[in-house]
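Contributing: when you submit paired examples, paste them exactly as shown. First protein:
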Amino acid sequence: MKKLALILSLLASCSAWAQGDAEAGKAKAATCAACHGADGNGIMTQYPKLSGQHPGYLEKQLKEFKLGVTSGGKQGRNDPVMSAMAMPLSEQDMADLAAYYASLPISDNTTPESSIEVGQQLYRYGDAERGIAACTACHGPRGNGTSLSGFPKISGQNAEYVKLQLEKFRAGQRHNDMNAMMRSVAAKLTDGEITALSQYVGGLH
C-alpha cells in the first residue's frame, strides 16, 4: 500500500505542472546562462547540466528552491544563488524554463577507468549487506531516470555536481528527496564511493 500511495502521489504531482513553452523559456533563460551556459551544459563542473533533463524534475527543483526561501529553510531546497534566482519566477516561468532546457541536447561525458569497478558495482547492484539500494532501481540501467516517477536523468551529468549533491544528502543539507531515499543511500557511502559513483554516472550511456 505504501508503494501504491507513493506512485499515486508522484503521478498527482506530475499532473500539476503547468504546460511549458520552450520558445518562451529560451527568452527567459538569459540570466541562467551565466552559470548553466547558453546550451544548458554548465559553465563549470560544480553546476548541473540542465539540458536533456526531464521538464517535470526541473520545474520541481525551481519550485522547491523558492519554497526553501518562503519556508525559512524548513521545506524545499536551499541554495543561496538558486533560491534568489527562483524567487521572482512565476509557475509559468518555471514551466517555460523547464521545457526549454529539456529540449536541449546534453553534452557527452566520460568515466575515468579508475572509477568503473566501484561505481558500476554500486550503481548496478548496490550493497545488500550495508543496506545500499542499487541506483538502477530508480534511475534505470542507462541513468535516464523516469519522467512520470520524478526520478532525474543522471547519465552525462557533471561528476563534480553529482558528488556535491551526494555529500549534501549524506550531511542532511539537502532534504527534498521523496521519502528520504537519497539521504538513506548517501548516508552509507564513503568519500571514495561517492567520488567513484559520481564519476561513473557522468559517463554512463
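Second protein:
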Amino acid sequence: MNDTTLPREVASDLDHGLKAMGLDAALAKPLLAYLTLLVRWNRTYNLTAIRDPREMVTRHLLDSLAMAEHVSSGSLADLGTGPGLPGIPLAITHPQLQVTLVESNGKKARFMREAVRQLDLSNARVAESRAEALDEPGAYDNLTARAMDTLAGIIEVGGHLLRPGGQLLAMKGVYPHEEIAQLPAGWQVLEVRPLQVPGLVGDRHLVVVERK
C-alpha cells in the first residue's frame, strides 16, 4: 500500500474537535496515525463508505470520542465495531480501559489487528466473531454498539457478554423512544444523554442501559 499523507486541514479539524470536547491535545498524534492507516487500507478494502479524511474526523473519530467521558476503565466489548469504531479511539483515549473489538468481517478484523499492532495498543484485542457466537459470558463491565441494530437487537446478540449490573452504552441519533419501550425484561434505562459532536449536524444520544 502506498504511503498516505492526510490533508493539512485534517489535523486542524481534529485539534479543534479535541479542544471543544475538553480532551487532551496529545491524543491527536495516535488518532491521526489510526486515521492514516484507515484511509490507506480503505482504498483497497472498502472498510468504510466514508472516503473523505476530513469527514472521517467528524463522523468517525469525534463521534466515537463523544462517549469517552462515559467509559474510562474496566472492560468493554465493542460489538460490530467495523474498522474499530468507537473501540480503537476509546482504547487510545483510555489506556486503563480493556477493549475487545468484536467483528466477524475478516477484512475489517485484519485491519484492526494491524492497527492494534502499529499503535501498540496493549489494552485492545480483536475477536473475529459474531457477537452472539463470542463465548465469554458475563466477562464485560460495558458493551457498546455504535451503528448496530435496535437496543433490543443489541441485547439479543450481545447481552450474554455483560456481567449483572454492567451497562450497555448505545450510540443513537434521535431520542429512541420506541426502542426504549421495547427493551426486554431484566434491562432498564438509567439515562439518555445528548452528545455534542463538533462539526456533526443532527442529534446524537448515548443510551445507558443496565443489566439487572
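If you have annotations for the second protein, write them as plain sentences, like these:
The chain has a mean pLDDT of 95.
The CA atoms of residues 30 and 92 lie 7 Å apart.
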